Amino acid sequence: MGVGTTFDRIDERLSAWISAQPLFFVATAPLGADGHVNLSPKGPIGSLRVLDPHTVAYLDVIGSGAETIAHLRENGRIVMMICAFEGPPRILRLHGRGRVVTPDDAEYAALLARGFDDPAGPEARRAIIVVTLTRVADSCGFGVPLMHHERQRHHLPAWAASKLRSGGEEALTEYRRRNNRESIDGLPALDLPAPVVHRLLGRGLRGDEPWAGAAQDRLTASVPVVDGYDRRTWRLRRAKADIGDGGGGNGARDRPGRL
Question: CB–CB of 186/235 below 8 Å?
Answer without folding.
Answer: yes
